[in-house]
Amino acid sequence: MKLMVINGPNLNMLGIREPEIYGSATYDDLTAMIKAEAEMLGAEVELYQSNHEGELVDIIQSAYGRIDGIVINPAAYTHTSVALLDAVKAVGIPTVEVHISDPDTREDFRRVSYIRSACVATIKGRGFEGYLEAMRLLVNNSRENNG
Ligand code: DQA
User: Fold this and answer.
1) Which residue's CA is minimally distant from atom 8 of ligand 1?
2) In this prediction, what percent of the chain has a pLDDT beyond 90?
């Protein structure tokens, strides 16, 4: 089982950006948690972070034929990007949308998620733990489907 975890713009600033919303732990702390969880699940994991929409599209496309599940926090591109939605649809890989905060309880413009309709689940408002829940969900679904 091979997972890909993708983080969008400004998530490299975790620990610095708006700690009252996103907490004081850093992006490095997040990657350490994800790698530890992957090991526990017996899965391989590739981690990416980009501030650029086109690069995020390239990363999603690079998963085609190689990766069994994608966890993505598209950050601000959640609310704007048809390109990321189309990329997830194009590769046809089970994908879980994750948000550290709960965007549905914040400004109105955060209530729209373009990518959501292409995702098997959305996990929001659970902090960093949400990424781990998403990984477990993908691994369990894959084990159920493949016996
Ligand atoms: C976010 C929520 C988005 O609205 C915001 O633009 C982000 C982070 C989250 O993880 O809570 O950058 O995706």
Assistant:
1) 75
2) 97
Per the structure, the count of domains in the chain is 1
CATH number of the domain encompassing residue 127: 3.40.50.9100
- DSSP letters of 68-97? SEEEEE-GGGGGT-HHHHHHHHHHT--EEE
User: What is the rounded distance in angstroms from the CA atom of residue 3 to the CA atom of residue 34?
Assistant: 10
pTM of structure:
0.97
Minimal CA–CA distance to 78: which of 125, 114, 118, 130?
Answer: 114
pLDDT tens digits for 24-61?
999 999 999 999 999 999 999 999 999 999 999 999 99
Is the CB of 104 within 6 Å of ligand 1? no
Q: Give the whole-angstrom CA distance, residue 64 versus residue 60.
A: 7
Mean pLDDT along residues 72-87: 98
Q: What pLDDT does 146 receive? A: 84
User: Domain residues for 103?
Assistant: 2-145
Q: Is the CB of 103 under 6 A from ligand 1?
A: yes
H or E stretch at 15 = none
Distance CA 50, CA 52 (A): 5
